[in-house]
Every structure is written in structure tokens, then in C-alpha cells.
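Minimal example, chain plus shikimate-3-phosphate.
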Amino acid sequence: MTTITFKVQPGGQLKGETRVPGDKSMSHRSIMLGSLAEGVTHVTGFLEAEDALATLQAFRDMGVNIEGPLNGCVTIHGVGKHGLKAPNRPLYLGNSGTSMRLLSGLLAGQPFNSVLTGDKSLSGRPMKRVTEPLAAMGAQIKTTEKGTAPLEITGQAGQLKSIAYTMPMASAQVKSCLLLAGMYAQGETSVIEPAPTRDHTERMLSGFKYPVKRNGNKATISAEGKLTATEIDVPSDISSAAFFLVGASIAEGSDLMLKHVGINPTRTGIISILRLMGASIEILNEREVGGEPVADLHVVSKPLKGIDIPEELVPLAIDEFPVLFVAAACAEGKTRLTGAEELRVKESDRIQVMADGLILLGVDATPTPDGMIINGGGVIGGGTVESHGDHRIAMAFSIAGLRANAPITILDCANVNTSFPEFKDIAKHLGLALVCEENKVQ
Ligand code: S3P
């Protein structure tokens, strides 16, 4: 096994232009829907990182012929809605919650059984949020006693019943899981969300010409319809761009252009929050690519101020809080995050892990059950922090180095490869003094 440690020298600024890799959520969905389509789907801009590749491998294991990825290009020979084959081994989904939760819905209504497994982090994450509503539809899914993976799914082809489900939390994974199950259920399945969450599933289903109705906070689907192969151009992932949006905002003298970034309004909470803090982010050259809005983002450094983060922005920035906490540490005054208890069940407990690391670096941070209070504007010191194998924690503490007064060492960074393998190269190229050390351990 190899462990990866990031070492960041303090200071520097981010300058230049870059295009970060493809959107993770859309990459997963392109493989899922392309596999279920009739005909050949071409994907460009596909994210060649472990999470999306886990989804790709799962569909190969279910008999789908998928070529690539090669330079972000993937060709999927769709097998049609009823063409998946029984996998002859458990589907291993690594670190990817999106793969596991969406697949549980899709596989619940198949004419074969399947088992979904994952790594240590994924095996500790809550799955009842999907297995309970799926059970109400007639699905047969066994979890551990704690409601975690492995998931043992006994396919109920033709037996699933529709549901009208009001989600107790704002989760795009739960919504998407139930919409995929709804494609195999009798009657109309509706999912009602308590607050807007990313809508890539609904948009991409429409792109594949599968009927899905959207009415306010409700999305409705049925088994009537088929997916027709299409072309998908995946834009850059705003969740990866987020590290550089914050980095360029906090490092004096920075001037950065991030090209071709997906700016779907269900994902732009990071821009809204940073702007409320005083950041300078221009949205340029707005256009639509394959049903998703895309733009170039120009960011220059600006002094930030602390704010109370509006709760309605939380689901729209849900993956960006690790790096937003770093922005808050650099902002003058108090930043308060509330209504974000979901952060405790991400790849790590992102409230606790970020608070521990920030405190170790000398930041005045207080974790709360549903968020954090940070008194920013003080000094960020150096030290060795734990990422707990969480990709976004590792990248967030790397960005903190831009404003630290001593080196920061970040342990356990191998999982950066789950979403952004090019992070260290792009960050170095733009001006972050990051060194990546690989150590073999027995
Ligand atoms: C995702 C939804 C979000 C997000 C995750 C990707 C998706 O999870 O945190 O990284 O692709 O649907 P939740 O649905 O748990 O909020």
C-alpha cells in the first residue's frame, strides 16, 4: 500500500488559467444513463478519477461494453433499460457514496440479485436513507444492523410499486436513487425535496429523452419511456474549481481564470457565499452545453469578511465547506455555519475533522452539531493535520498553506484521486508550493 502526504510551503499566490477536470456527479450519471440507453452514447470531459471509474467498472461488470476513458472520452454501447446482466461478483464502489446510493435504486428493480460493497469510509456511511424508502416501494435490500453496506439486493423485477416520498433531508443522492427505482416501478414515483438539490439526474434524463416531470420541489417519473443515446459534454466540476476560487480569493496578488466550469444554479452556493464574504468572482462567457449552464470564472484576491452563511445556500454548496472553512479562517470577523449536519456523514465527519485541523493550525474554530463558528483573520500557523482519507479535507488544508506562516503537512491524501487526481499538478502550476510524498507501507 502507498500512503500519500502533501507538504505545503507557506505563502504564494495563484495566477494563470486552467480547466479543472470533469464534474463528478455528471460523470457518474453519464455512465448509468448511457448504459441504460438504446444506442451508442459518446461522453467527453468525463472525470477520470476513482469514484467515476468505480461506476464505470460496475456497469462493465453488468455486461455493458464501455470504451475508454481516453483523454476524457468514453463510448458507451447502451444495452437498453432492461439489458443489464447479473454481475458475477460483488460490485465494489470504493469511496463513492453516489455510486452506491444511485445503484441501490437502479438495481432494486432488476431481474437479478447484486451486492454492493465499498471501502472503510463508504462502509460506515448511512444507507437507510435509501433502503427505507426503497423498501416502501417493495425493494428487498439487506444492510448491516447499523444500516450500512454491504447492501445485498434481491432484484424485484416487475414488482416495485411507486411512492410519493418527501425526503427528510436535502439529498440529491436519495432523490436520484428513487427516480432510478421509479423507472422500474408500477405507477408514478414522486420525490419532494425540502430544499433544492443538484438536479443533474433530471436534466440528463431529459437529455436522453426519458420523461421526467418537474414541478417546484417535486420530480416525478414512471416506467413509461426509454432512454435514447445522446452526446454528453461534461463541464469542469465546480466542486474542484472551488479550491482555487478560495485560494485565489485569500492569497494576495492572485488573478485566476477557471475555464468551462459547470454553473448549474443547484451547485453555485460556493460563488454566492464567497461573494457575500466580499470575494471578487466574475462569471464570464456564460453558455449552455448539453442542457447544463457553463461559464469561465475570473477571480482576483480580495480581503474577505466573516458572515452568517444563509441556510438556504447550504445544499447548494454542500461539498465545498471544507475549503469554505479555510476562507472563513482568513476572513476578518466571525463566520457562522448552521443547518449543515449532513457534513457529519460525508466521506469523513467534515465538521469535526476540519475543526480539529484548523484548531491545530491555531485558528479559533468551534464545531457545533450542525456547523461551525470561526473567528477569522488571525494567523494560520503550520503543523501536521489529518485528512482522515477525505479528498476534500486534504485539498482544503493544502489551500490553507497560501495564508499560513509555516509549512503544513497533510497526511493520508491518496483519496484525492477519488475526485481530482490532477489537483497537485494544477495547484503547483498555478503557484501553490506543494510537494507530494509517496511512501510504501507494509
Ligand atoms: C451528490 C450529492 C451530494 C454530494 C455528493 C454528490 C450527487 O450528496 O455531497 O458529493 O452526485 O448526487 P447528498 O445527496 O448526500 O447530499
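The chain has a mean pLDDT of 98. The longest strand covers residues 280-289.
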